[in-house]
From TrEMBL:
GO MF term set: hexosyltransferase activity
Pfam families xrefs: Glyco_tran_WecG
This protein's name: WecB/TagA/CpsF family glycosyl transferase
Keywords: Glycosyltransferase, Transferase
Annotated InterPro entries: WecG_TagA_CpsF
Amino acid sequence: MTGSVITESDSHRLHEQLGVRFGHETLADVIAGAFRNIHAPVFYITCNLNHLRVLQSDMEFREAYRKATLITLDSRPVQVISRVCFGEDVPLITGADLFDALFRQMRSSRDRPFFICSSDDTGNRLRQNLLGRGFAPDSVAFYSPPFNFEHDADCNEMILAQIRKHNTTHLFLGVGAPKSENWVAQHLSDLPAAHIFCVGMALDFTAGLKKRAPSWLRSSGLEWLHRLSSEPGRLAPRYAGDAVIFARILIGQKLVQVFLPAWKK
């Protein structure tokens, strides 16, 4: 509950059931950390119900989670369970909220963002927005990779070379989960000292190419309903699978364990 003391026992019980240890940093904490100078890549993941479902069977995705620096909770239903059943008040930090806040606070004098986008249109819109805010043309870069790029060694090396040449300070991936997270984990040792975020459709939302749910739906935990009505064919099977995972959590079944490093201040 809000204002209650979180004990190590409560935190352990939540981790033991869900298999993931979430950071307790607020959105403001994460934003502040994301503008620190660093000497190695810092990898952020926002975890929703779909992630929890995929983690049950995808070994590569689990390995990506193990390489993450910070996992934030991106699921209001899971937040409610955490609070009611475990007394643990985990901050809700969605990929869309996180990216939008970071994008708005990008500094033209210091930051060099690189976007791996679902389309050139998304990348162009994000770039033009930043150029209009005073960013130099060479300080903003993006790439929209072809289908199945993650299996093309030459394409991957080209992307990595572009990211390094750009002197990237913030790398954002919006090509879907678990593809984005797995790609980062696979190439983490080849990436520069950048803050790295896998934020799904957040790039398209901020670019204005997809419409996010109204704030009252988001605050009610019903953003999924808006998305389902927008893309029923694609999302109905996904949400049905996510509902099964949620039911398993509700009845107290333990999920696959993923052990994560502690978030370093």
